[in-house]
Amino acid sequence: MEPDLVAELRRRGHRVTTARRAVLTTLLESSDHLTADQIAEAVKRRNPDIDTSTVYRTLGLFEELGFVEHAHLGHGAAVYQLGRTHQHLVCEECGAVVDIPVSALDDLARNLRTGYQFEIRPGHFPLLGRCSRHTDAAARDTVHSHSQREHTHG
After folding, report:
1. Would you say domain 85-153 falls under CATH 3.40.50.10490?
2. What is the distance in angstroms between the CA of the first residue and the CA of the last residue of the chain?
3. CB 50 within 8 A of CB 19
4. CB–CB of 87/105 below 8 Å?
5. Phi, psi of 76 (to 5 degrees)
6. Which long-range contacts (CB under 8 A, 24 or more apart) does 23-31 make?
7. Rg of the Cα atoms in the chain
8. Are strands 34-35 and 79-82 parallel, antiparallel or unpaired?
9. Does residue 91 contact residue 73 with C-beta atoms inside 8 Å?
10. Domain 3-81 has what CATH class?
11. 3-state SS of the chain: helix, strand, coil percent to 5?
12. Domain ranges of the chain
């Protein structure tokens, strides 16, 4: 259990309940992006008496307090992680998710702020594209089909 988060919870006037400890422990032990249902399942495995709605309320509180962030990685349910601010890159071909630091978007954020008076909120939605496995394959296919066309028309 992250003692800083427990102390911060108390400092802000919130009780440290079994459910809150269980949700924090689940998030701390996971390196994956977990949906609320996956978090609830993991919590219930350890503490069968904790209701799914309690897990949802706890995630809401933790998000308000800045302990967790949620993001949408595609068409599925939102995923949660402890407040590790990062941007997600999602491959449209295979669904691979790559976490990058938000600082990688600093130039884009600055350009949008100065050129369009628009402030982006990185992390909430992913940047979609193709991972290297699929961009490399697309490049090979393009070269291959181009050389076939030259061979048949030449």
Report:
1. no
2. 68
3. yes
4. yes
5. -85, -170
6. 23/55, 23/58, 23/59, 23/62, 24/62, 24/67, 25/1, 27/68, 27/80, 27/81, 27/82, 28/1, 28/2, 28/82
7. 21
8. antiparallel
9. no
10. mainly alpha
11. 55, 15, 30
12. 3-81, 85-153
| Claim: this prediction has a pTM higher than 0.85 | no
Residue with tokens 């369009």: 116
pLDDT, one tens digit per residue, over 14-65 is 999 999 999 999 998 987 889 999 999 999 999 999 999 999 999 999 999 9
Lookup: tokens for 117: 């008076």
Q: How far apart are CA 2 and CA 9, in angstroms?
A: 11
Classify 116 as helix, strand or coil. helix
Name the token pair of 128.
């979609």
